[in-house]
């Protein structure tokens, strides 16, 4: 029984299909995390900069007040015609000047919000580029150290970084925390991409199989770009910004658990170094 269990664990750890799914999952998490925040980030940055001002334009109170007053007038007239007295409501018609002032205030508020959102494009661009700057720096380092330490550890660090970045996205309420999440995501993307492709090149020795495996793994990249914007927009509209990133954090945990079950021997690392 123990021998069968050991044989099953060995087959599980050395399964090419599971390795391919692990690499595909890494690409999927990375690019889903990139695109999920796209429909969320403008309003998120606005709320960070203006916590006391709601983004949606409030209803014009003067118009609502006039509608209420008109209904009260008709109610008083009906009471007078019925002989029930002069009516109980004290109706005050808003001055046209007051209405104009309120309309100008609402227009000014909309203009200020539009200007503020336009200025946030710089912050959005800086935030988006942070991830790729970190990835640009870390990727050659990962490629340099993989022959010495193996790809398994770097892939594990990549999934852990994606998990931490997702949690920070879910609960972060400051611009600095968003920058930290982007940096962690860039580090994780470097580890996942380089170690994942190295793993596939090591597992699939046949050239045709290797090309097919790498092509299939990159489908996770395309799927993440496809799913992310819709997933982020719908989840943010229904549940707020926390839930979509917690789901991605849970998916990252799956990658961490699968990576922990994969064993890379010292002989494999020695072969990589040569």
UniProtKB/TrEMBL annotation:
Bilayer disposition of the protein: Multi-pass membrane protein
Membrane-spanning parts: 20-41, 154-172, 216-236, 242-261
Q: Name one GO molecular function term.
A: serotonin:sodium:chloride symporter activity
Q: Where in the cell is it found?
A: Membrane
Is rRNA processing found in the keyword set? no
Q: Name one Pfam family in it.
A: MFS_1
Record's GO cellular component terms: synaptic vesicle membrane; terminal bouton
Q: Which domain of life is it from?
A: Eukaryota
- Sequence ranges assigned to domain Major facilitator superfamily (MFS) profile in this UniProt record: 19-274
Keywords for this protein: Membrane, Transmembrane, Transmembrane helix, Transport
GO BP terms: namely: aminergic neurotransmitter loading into synaptic vesicle
Q: Does the keyword Transcription apply?
A: no
What's this protein's name? Major facilitator superfamily (MFS) profile domain-containing protein
Organism of origin: Parthenolecanium corni
């Amino acid at each position: 029984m123990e021998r069968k269990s050991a044989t099953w664990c060995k087959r599980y750890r050395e399964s090419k299909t599971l390795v391919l799914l692990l690499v595909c999952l890494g690409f999927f998490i990375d690019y889903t995390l990139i695109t999920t925040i796209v429909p969320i980030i403008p309003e998120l940055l606005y709320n960070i900069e203006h916590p006391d001002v709601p983004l949606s334009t409030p209803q014009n109170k003067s118009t609502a007040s006039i509608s209420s007053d008109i209904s009260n007038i008709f109610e008083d007239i009906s009471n007078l015609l019925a002989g029930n007295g002069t009516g109980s409501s004290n109706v005050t018609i808003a001055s046209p000047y007051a209405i104009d002032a309120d309309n100008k205030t609402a227009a000014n508020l909309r203009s200020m919000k539009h200007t503020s959102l336009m200025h946030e494009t710089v912050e959005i661009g800086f935030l988006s580029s942070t991830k790729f700057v970190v990835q640009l720096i870390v990727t050659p380092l990962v490629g340099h150290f993989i022959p010495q330490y193996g790809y398994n550890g770097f892939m594990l660090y990549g999934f852990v970084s994606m998990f931490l970045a997702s949690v920070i996205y879910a609960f972060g309420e400051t611009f600095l925390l968003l920058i930290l999440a982007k940096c962690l995501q860039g580090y994780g993307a470097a580890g996942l991409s380089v170690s994942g492709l190295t793993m596939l090149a090591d597992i699939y020795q046949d050239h045709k199989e290797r090309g097919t495996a790498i092509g299939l793994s990159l489908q996770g990249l395309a799927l993440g770009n496809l799913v992310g914007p819709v997933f982020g927009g719908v989840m943010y509209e229904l549940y707020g910004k926390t839930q979509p990133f917690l789901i991605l954090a849970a998916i990252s945990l799956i990658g961490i658990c699968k990576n922990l079950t994969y064993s890379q021997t010292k002989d494999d690392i020695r072969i990589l170094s040569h």
